[in-house]
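Exercise 7. Predict the structure of DUF748 domain-containing protein from Fibrella forsythiae.
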Amino acid sequence: MKRSVKILIAIVALLVVARLLLPYFVLRYVNKTLADMGEYTGHVDDIDISLLRGAYQIKTLTIRKINGKVKEPFVSIPRSDLSVEWKSILKGKLVGEVECYEPELNFSFSTNESTRQTGEGADWTQVVKDLLPIQINRFAVVNGRVNLLKLFAASKADLSLQKVDGELRNIRNVEEKSGSLPSPVWLTGDVPGYGGSMRFDANMYLLKDIPDFNYNLKFTDLQLVKLNPIARPYANVDFDKGTMSVFSEMAMDDGKLNGYLKPLTKDMTIFKLKEPGEHRTIGRFFTELLAQGATEVLENRKRDQVATRVPLTGTVDDIKTPVWPTIFGVLRNAYVQAFEQKFDNDITFTDALQSFKEDFKEKRADRKAERKEKRAERKAARKAKREAKKEAKEKK
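Solution. The predicted structure, encoded as tokens:
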């Protein structure tokens, strides 16, 4: 047998052995990485590898909170496909693509720690870096679902986004310079519990504990009647008809944020003299009557809408919503100029970055003043010490 044939057979044998053993080693590595994520742990049932395509398929990825009492897992992905872009390899770059089919995320915003599930308590940045050691050019979600459980503390109503499709590009596994937003993302979905739909567009830097971003978010044509489970406990009112759309822009840099919420209601009716089938309390009767009266006063007649703009500033832990600009916004919509059902396009990432810089300068000035005060205290202490020594010598 010729030597070249022997070499070819050896190469084929090695490829076969690699094909048989590689899924085992990859599965073991992935499960080892997912096993210890702080307060969360994960598991993958199986991995199938295609050497010729440069791809592998993850089957049934599940992430749960350790000692958590939420029935639903935090993350559940029945199938994910990961592949390498051959055209990028030919250019000397190692770039991959990920597609997740029917993924489900379950957030729980309970005040009880055992039933709270928000992703806090895990270093997701490090997990991403360990599992995806290459640049991901495209991360796609197909027919996903996001459940926001116990989002409204005074109500049993939850919020669910279904038929979620989206795409995230250019996920870097290296640190970016400050002020950079390398990853564009878009998401769409339905809000079946409340009617209407959702659209999210953003540029983000994800590999941080608190990601930097600049986003546009809108919910359109939410049915006010379907919001009654929330309106009753929070505002003591019932909607009889109408729709609501919400537009929001926000930018955040290192936890400092700047943005707004712009809710617009159309054809809204709150008060109805007789509501068949419902036993309305006297308090709710008069609350709805007053609310309807205020609606009539503050409604833009031409567009049949009540709207305002709520400024949002501060930090992730302390978001401020100034009252007077919100009130003036209602009056402006009613009597000056109606708000448009679109984004104002006046929030940029530079705003959040500038806010961060101003905060940094303020802290630096505080530190400088503190150092100056301590120097003055040390100087005064040295002076007092010298005077004490001088007095002691004079007494002698």
